[in-house]
Amino acid sequence: ITQRLAMALVVFLCSAFGANAWADPPGRVGRLGDMNGQVWLYTPDAGEWISAVRNRPLTSGDRIATDADGRAEVRIGSATVRLDGGTELEVVQIDDEHIALQLHNGSVAARLRSNDSAREFELRTAEGRFLANRPGRYRIDRTDSTSNLTVWSGEAVYEGPGSALTVYSGQRAEFWLDQNNAAQYSITDPVHDDFAAWSSDRDRRDDRSASTRYVSPEMTGVEDLDRYGRWEQAPEYGAVWVPVGVPVGWAPYSAGHWAWVSPWGWTWVDDAPWGFAPFHYGRWAMFHDRWCWVPGTYVRRPVYAPALVGWVGGPHFSLTVNVGGSPAPAVGWFPLAPREVYVPTYRVSPGYVQQVNITHVTNITNVTTIINNPQLAVTNVEYRNRHIPRAVTVVPQTVMVNRQPVAPSASQFRSSAIVQQIIKQPTPQVVAAAPTVKAPVITPAIAQARRMQIHAEPARPGTAAPNVAAPVAPLVVPRPPTRAAVVRPGEPSDARARAQEEQQRRREIREDQRPAGNVAAPPARAAAPAVTGAPAPAARTPVSPPARAQERAVERETSVPPPAVPAPPARPQPPARPSVVAPAAQTPPVPAAEPRARAHDVPPPPAARAHGEGVPVGVPQRAPQGEARPVPPQSHPQQPVPPQGQPQQQPHPQAAPAPRQRPEREPQQGPERRNESRAPVAQQHAQAAHEEHQARDERRADPHERRQPE
Questions:
Q1: Cα-Cα-Cα-Cα dihedral sign, residues 198, 203, 206, 208
Q2: What are the Cα distances from residue 396, in Å, to 387, 393, 503?
Q3: By the 8 A CB rule, do 252 and 406 touch?
Q4: What is the rounded distance in angstroms from the CA atom of residue 58 to the CA atom of residue 79?
Q5: Which residue has the higher pLDDT, 75 or 526?
Q6: Which residue from 39, 74, 36, 77 is spatially nearest to 58, judged by alpha carbons?
Q7: Which pLDDT does position 438 carry in this prediction?
Q8: What is the SS3 assignment for 232-300?
Q9: Is residue 143 within 8 Å of residue 488, measured between CB atoms?
Q10: Of all residues in the chain, what percent are helix, strand and coil, respectively (each to 5)?
């Protein structure tokens, strides 16, 4: 019986461990660091683009986009990824074994400081993927269906469809796919621009960091500790970090806001520029009447936690505050002290509980209780920081649910009776394992986005393939909002797409306003090429001409008016003239000219005019506006060519000066006028030929002169 019970217990424990092992969240996340200009963030939980804030954790499925004037920096352990203006980057996968990013457009620079970060890093584009062979500094640009890889230091490999190429230090390779989906490349010199200089300056500043002597460089957010605090030695805790410049009465987890980040749940986002590592790793303690951060035992890769706090409001303690004269539910928390166990409120395995607490608690005896009954694990536990004044923060639950700043509301209730009761309460049952605030409502669309499939890629040599979830429907991510269009040389943009749509709309308006009748339709134009990245125009339903005219009127009233086109300079209109018929051939009858719709209509493109589109037969064509006609060698001296950018003036038949050779003649039109400048020369040649013929006839008539040699 004893053996059977022992075997049953082993089977139960193995099944429990195996069922929970897959549910562990990743121990590594990304962090939004320094940002300049407008930066946007898309998360599957929110389902829309929101303005990004500093210290926001990044995980699989998130996207970052910068405006033309924006730049952003992302930290993932010791790896640094920087985004230039007009860039959109997707976090495909971040876990303990792999970092996969997708560059949709723009420029990114990556600094990989260790062999592990180089081996685990991967960046993908539509043209292939880029892998680092060793630590170094790299840059990837994607513009106009072309990817560029620059290796400032190190060595990288490009893998395309059925091909691969190694790029060495000091090289820049350009990759694209031809019509047969075969990868092509060319080697050029690296580009030295403002983004490269900015990235190099940031790398030099990080090299001077001294915090890596006390904590692992794989701890995300450690790079900011040197600039905003100092390291000291405490007899009880060892190395501690003391922040400088904090206001009087400041306490940890009191200036920031809460955000829901899957799969951890409620996550703290601090307002301080250094507020990432001290709030997701280690513990807080009072040392010399000041708050100091205690990182604990040195670990090569510490495990990330959403917030290392203890919650207030257990099952035997009701927490309410007066808001507007009426009681309202509240929520409270305080920072965990050194050697206090952090109890995760999300689904984890026993191994995860050990690793997330290993920096302060190496031997956790109640792991099973923490997993199966978290509330029982925190009951009857005396937490040290709960009795420190100003350490407990209490706010209404609406502040947490609506992701509002905590500091304004916390200052109102810090001296309230309910907070004093929590501090002085001897019964330790006021502590809860999880906040009383429920998780936000998850719609089916958001739930599907959370189950977004990670695109499976061939595993790198020596690494295991990631555990990919079951395939689901593809997720459609909207484009990030932009304040200014990003236009680069040779790159299509939304501005060009909108301009083409506006020209198409104007042409449709002119067609609707044409009078009815037997009017010959102009030749069909070739369709404009599609602009990469521009939104496809919606399909139009055929409607009647009156309905279409009404629709155009509504569009003109509701849409943004196009830029005003300056009217051409006024010029006198010549009177009607009789058509000049060439002597060689009879000119066909001229059809009636079509009236113009509006004076500010944009003229057709020069390419269309070159083919004679919309020009009646038999009417001499003039040079289009803004173009200078080439001057022929035998042009008339009295007809100057207008300068560039000015329309050519039609000479008035009565005001035009008479030719110098024949002042008695009136100016003529057509081919005769064009031959006036050559008339004197022709007459001289004709006169000389006539005299030569007469002399030759006289010599032939005299027989004596015929025998003389000529």
A1: negative
A2: 21, 10, 55
A3: no
A4: 14
A5: 75
A6: 74
A7: 79
A8: EEECCCEEEEEECCCCCCCCCCCCEEEEEECCCEEEEEECCCCCCHHHHCCEEEEECCEEEEECCCCCC
A9: yes
A10: 25, 25, 50
**pLDDT in the model for residue 147:** 96
At 709, list the tokens: 């040699």
HSE-CB of 400 using CA atoms within 13 angstroms: 24
CA distance 332 to 318: 11
Cα(482)–Cα(498) distance, integer angstroms: 14
The pLDDT assigned to 571 comes to 35
Whether the Cβ atoms of residue 57 and residue 30 lie closer than 8 Å to each other: yes
Q: What region, left, alpha or beta, does residue 391 occupy, with left being phi > 0 and alpha being psi -120 to 50 degrees?
A: alpha
Q: Which residues contact 379 (CB under 8 A, 6 or more apart)?
A: 314, 428, 429, 431
Separation between Cα atoms, residue 318 and residue 426, nearest integer Å: 16
Contact 343, 377 (CB under 8 A): yes
Q: Average pLDDT of the chain?
A: 73
Q: What residues have CB less than 8 Å from 305, skipping those under 6 apart?
A: 264, 280, 281, 342, 344, 356
SS3 (DSSP) at 83 = strand
The partner residues of 695 in beta bridges, in order of sequence, read none
Q: How many CA atoms lie less than 13 Å away from 620 in the CB half-sphere?
A: 10
Q: CA-CA distances (angstroms) from residue 694 to 655, 690, 697, 708, 709?
A: 44, 6, 5, 18, 18
Q: Is the peptide bond before 263 cis (omega within 30 degrees of 0)?
A: yes
Span 191-224, pLDDT tens digits = 899 999 999 999 998 887 889 899 999 999 999 9
CA nearest to 323, candidates 390, 404, 253? 404
Concatenate the DSSP letters of all residues of 407-436 into one string: HHHHHHHTTSHHHHHHHH---GGGEESS-S
Cβ atoms of 372 and 350 closer than 8 Å: no
Q: Which two tokens stand for residue 416?
A: 């309230």
Q: How confident is the model at residue 619 (pLDDT cuts 50, 70, 90)?
A: very low
Best CA proximity match to 222, nearest among 301, 155, 284: 301
Q: Which two tokens stand for residue 491?
A: 């790159």
Q: Exposed (0-12), middle (13-18) or buried (19+): which is 387, by Cβ within 10 Å?
A: middle
Residue 524, Cβ density class (10 Å: 0-12 exposed, 13-18 middle, ≥19 buried) = exposed
Confidence at 698, pLDDT banded by 50, 70, 90: low
Residues near 208 by beta carbon (within 8 Å), at least 6 away in sequence: 226
Give the best-scoring range by mean pLDDT among 11-25, 318-332, 568-582, 695-709: 318-332
Cβ(189)–Cβ(150) below 8 Å:
no
* Whole-number Å distance between alpha carbons of 229 and 288: 15
The predicted pLDDT at position 16 comes to: 47
Angstrom distances, CA of residue 123 to CA of 27, 316, 318, 370: 20, 51, 50, 38
**pTM of the entire structure?**
0.64
Q: Length of the chain, please?
A: 710
Say which range, 253-257, 430-434, 510-514, has the weakest mean pLDDT: 510-514
- pLDDT band for 6, please (50, 70, 90 cuts): low
Is residue 94 within 8 Å of 29, Cβ to Cβ?
yes
